[in-house]
Amino acid sequence: MKILLIGATGKLGAAVHQTLAARGHQLITVGRTSGDLRHDIADPAGTAALYAAAGPVDAVVSAAGDTPFKPVAEIAPADYEAAFRGKVLSQIELVRQGVGHVAERGSFTLISGVLADEPIPTGSAASMANGAIEAFVRAAAIEIAPQRVNAVSPTVFTESLDDYGSYFPGMPSVDLARVTEAYVRSVEGAQTGQVYAVR
Q1: How far apart are CA 75 and CA 69, in angstroms?
Q2: N or C of the chain: less Cβ packing under 10 Å?
Q3: Is 41 exposed, middle or buried (0-12, 13-18, 19+ CB in 10 A)?
Q4: What is the CB-side half-sphere exposure of residue 42 using CA atoms within 13 A?
Q5: At what angle do helices 90-98 and 124-144 cross, to 10 degrees?
Q6: CA-to-CA separations, 181 to 23, 48, 71, 110, in angstroms, rounded
Q7: Chain segment 72-116, per-residue pLDDT in tens
Q8: d(CA 187, CA 102)
């Protein structure tokens, strides 16, 4: 398959890239400052330019989404807006604009996260964004068929515990290899409207 991979240079994106490429897929990598194509998908115009540059694809895979982490008493409306633009609207636009560029039975795989179900202090913006993505996936799936859309919802990566482990006290981590399996399931499988929780 010809797959558009957004966020390919991050820790997760690099692992997804390696896994999908090893399975014989053709990857077009996308990032703000690196990759085969360089576009900012937080801007809907950037998403339009991305699809124009990429041409027809069989699948779109997202491993990117930025959200701020601050206590509720300190977080500002602009922070919630940034979380919405950076993780929710950007991925919604990948699907909304992508239906005309993805193969008839192609797929979209989005990224949410454990904080939709298990919030942590300072994580309200991320919880909001993750929950919104998961609700969107379930709703969009019934409209875009036979194209498919799913989300992968991992907990903290084992490979990132040194940086982020203290934010997830008592929560088990997951190896990136297991997270990439969920991406394979979404891209190569037949299900739609699913949230693949990797815990």
Answers
A1: 8
A2: C
A3: buried
A4: 15
A5: 10
A6: 11, 29, 33, 14
A7: 999 999 999 999 999 999 999 999 999 999 999 999 999 999 999
A8: 12
Each domain of the chain, given as residue ranges in start order, spans 2-198
Amino acid in the structure at residue 7:
G
Residues in the chain, total: 199
What would the pLDDT profile of 5-56 be if each residue is shown by its tens digit? 999 989 999 999 999 999 999 999 999 999 999 999 999 999 999 999 999 9
AA letter at 46:
G
Tokens of 83: 């979380």
> What pLDDT does residue 15 have?
98
Average pLDDT of 61-77? 95
DSSP string across the chain: -EEEEETTTSHHHHHHHHHHHHTTPEEEEEESSSSSEE--TTSHHHHHHHHHHH-SEEEEEE---------TTT--HHHHHHHIIIIIIHHHHHHHHHTTTEEEEEEEEEE--GGGTS--TT-HHHHHHHHHHHHHHHHHHHHHTTSEEEEEEE--BGGGHHHHGGGSTTPPPB-HHHHHHHHHHHHHS---S-EEEE-
Tokens of 163: 């940086």
